[in-house]
Design a protein that fits this description.
This protein is α+β, with helices and mostly antiparallel strands. Helices cover 28% and strands 34% of the residues.
């Protein structure tokens, strides 16, 4: 076994690897960029080495500096985590040439599976089902159009060296193929230094289901069941679960056996994942193999009881797997959601800034949080916007979802935009609860974006009762509560109720219904824990002048609690109309203005492409919201933009 391991990564995965190393008694070495000087993973490790500037290209992608840090520290092995250098065959070769051990698969397997074109050829040779398509290199947009029409629209355009949703476009028309080919090439060139793309038929209503494999390099390769990863935005996973609610046992075994066959075909060693697209008839097709640890690996750990990081380390140290396929058991259900610094109301565009408040859910049975931040940490524009991963386990899917909902309500983050309310809305969605998933779920169920889940009528009445107790506590400041009539406006919709104090709360009467709310919330506390009609409920509360901003279960509610006479006057107040910004093109996120497609004086039409903004290595095309003539250009290519910064103005 190793005495010391260097972790060539950052954030939550670096912290997660450190935790396993601590349990195994292995010393750890962190590396960090200028932006991560005060990061949590740096403080958790036994030693830490500065390796360069804030941009990944100046630090975490510099293999020579990482290897030098490992040699200087006396580390015997390097764990790459995921992303960055984890799937760079040249880095593996350099690590081994330096006399160190790479904790992962051999360079040959990474090279074979890292090239999406070559991996599909190998998969077909190994007897793995593949999607119909063209897996050769494509030289031009016009050639791409011809291939797409031959394969059959719609098609998926993908970067050969891609991953994480980068360099990937769906195209349903020839024009979309041309635009998608260009954008996919640009993203692939910027993210991977390899602009090659390929085209395959797009499977309608697909499910994204992957198989976890584990191989010891001595002939034993096992599959650790599947993970369903169909809840995605911009082709990036948001919610994952194990097992899949869709697969039957025969399909599950067939997918597992094909995943093992592919791994064995490239002499795989360590943990890896074979990803499949599955159609509505349970036909499955090879998508790609990720030759590394996956972000969503915790759900597999929760249902198998195995620590995948530990087994990666043990296998790299020369140990053999002490169990066979028949020894593996699935226990219960696990669900993971990725907590991202992004704004769901703006199309999930990334958010940056300081975590002014950060409070993870309390430790509880079946609840796990993998994070690499703490209160006061900075979410940087240089790296992936994931803040943490929330994982819950239950004896069945329903219980795992219930625990997940409760944990999300207790996950408190302020200072940046985040997707926790959206994740709560997904958990509450009837289609998700039924397991009717596809990679189109978010686009179909939230076509206008997300600004908060709408409350059902009974939920509104319950929210009104809880808002009444919050406001009475805020006004009383410790004094006894009094019996009175109130009107609670929830987003300007009134609910009339009478309240009377109880020993530790109130009884709210609305018509013939009576609800008892009990709890010890006091002004200034971010979380309100209530007992509502005998069940535990957690609200996130912010006081804003006369208003209470309440977050619960994906709902974002602005509440105003008033006496009936005041409510009658409030109903007469006019609603202020928002300013008309249709003549401006604003940056929807912090990022770099890559290009402008227009000049002053040019005529533009609604929906016409006018600019491209890059944020966190993703290209975002901005389009005109109105017809007009370009009046002024407020930002030039190369400008670092802030949220809502003016780019151009129409007249």
């Amino acid at each position: 076994m190793f005495n010391k391991i260097l972790i060539a990564n950052r954030g939550e995965i670096a912290c997660r690897i450190i935790k396993t190393c601590r349990r195994l008694g292995i010393g750890t070495v962190a590396v960090y960029s200028e932006a991560d000087r005060d990061a949590l993973h740096v403080r958790m490790a036994d030693e830490a080495f500065h390796i360069g500037g804030a941009a990944a290209s100046e630090s975490y992608l510099l293999g020579d500096r990482i290897i030098a840090a490992a040699k200087e520290s006396g580390a015997q092995a390097i764990h790459p985590g995921f992303g960055f250098l984890s799937e760079r065959a040249a880095f593996v070769e350099a690590v081994e040439a330096a006399g160190l051990v790479f904790i992962g698969p051999p360079a040959s397997a990474i090279a074979a599976m890292g090239d999406k074109i070559e991996s599909k050829r190998l998969a077909a040779q190994a007897g793995v089902n593949t999607v119909p398509g063209y897996i050769g290199e494509i030289d031009s947009a016009e050639e791409a159009v011809g291939i797409a029409e031959e394969v059959g629209l719609p098609v998926m355009i993908k970067a050969s060296a891609g991953g994480g949703g980068k360099g990937m476009r769906i195209a349903r028309t020839p024009e979309e193929v041309r635009d998608g080919f260009r954008s996919a090439q640009n993203e692939a060139r910027g993210s991977f230094g390899d602009e090659r793309v390929f085209i395959e038929r797009y499977v309608e209503q697909p499910r994204h289901i992957e198989i976890q494999v584990l191989a010891d390099g001595e002939g034993r390769c096992l599959y650790l069941w599947e993970r369903e990863c169909s809840i995605q935005r911009r082709h990036q996973k948001v919610v994952e679960e194990a097992p899949s609610p869709f697969l039957d046992e025969a399909t599950r075994i067939a997918m597992g056996e094909q995943a093992v066959a592919l791994a064995q075909a490239v002499d795989y060693r360590s943990a890896g994942t074979v990803e499949f697209i599955v159609d509505q008839k349970r036909n499955f097709y090879f998508l790609e193999m990720n030759t590394r640890l996956q972000v969503e690996h915790p759900v597999t750990e929760m249902i198998t009881g195995l620590d995948l990081v530990e087994w990666m380390i043990r296998i790299a140290a020369g140990e053999s797997l002490p169990f066979e396929q028949g020894d593996l058991r699935r226990d219960g259900w696990a669900i993971e959601s990725r907590i991202y610094a992004e704004d769901p109301a703006r199309g999930f565009l990334p958010s940056i800034g300081r975590l002014r408040r950060y409070q993870e859910p309390p430790e509880a049975e079946g609840v796990r949080v993998d994070s690499g931040v703490e209160e006061g940490a900075e979410i940087s524009m240089y790296y992936d916007p994931m803040i943490a991963k929330l994982v819950t386990w239950g004896p069945d899917r329903e219980r795992a979802i219930e625990r997940h909902q409760a944990a999300l309500d207790n996950f408190y983050i302020r200072g940046i935009d985040h997707n926790i309310p959206f994740l709560s809305a997904v958990m509450a969605h009837p289609r998700f609860r039924e397991g009717r998933l596809s990679t189109d779920f978010i686009a179909e169920e939230f076509p206008e974006g997300f600004a908060g889940r709408l409350l059902e009528e009974q939920e509104r009445r319950e929210m009104a009762a809880m808002a009444a107790l919050l406001e009475l506590r805020r006004q009383a400041r410790g004094a006894p509560l009094a019996k009175q009539d109130l009107v609670v406006e929830l987003d300007r919709e009134p609910v009339a109720l009478s309240v009377e104090p109880t020993e530790d709360g109130i009884r709210a009467v609305m018509g013939e219904e009576s609800l008892e709310v009990a709890g010890d919330w006091w002004p200034g506390e971010p979380l309100a824990h209530f007992l509502l009609a005998g069940r535990e409920v957690t609200l996130q509360v912010e006081c804003s002048g006369l208003y209470l901003q309440i977050f619960h279960g994906g709902a974002i509610v602005r509440a105003l609690v008033m006496r009936p006479a005041v409510a009658a006057l409030s109903a007469l107040m006019p609603v202020k109309a928002p300013p008309d910004l249709s003549k401006f093109v604003l940056s929807p996120m912090p990022g770099l203005l890559v290009s402008l497609k227009v000049k002053v004086g040019m005529e533009v039409k609604v929906g016409e492409e006018v600019a491209v903004v890059e944020a966190m290595k993703m290209e975002n095309v901005l389009r005109a919201l109105a017809d007009g003539r370009v009046k002024a250009i407020h930002a030039e290519p190369g400008t670092s933009l802030s949220v809502d910064q003016k780019i151009l103005e129409l007249e």
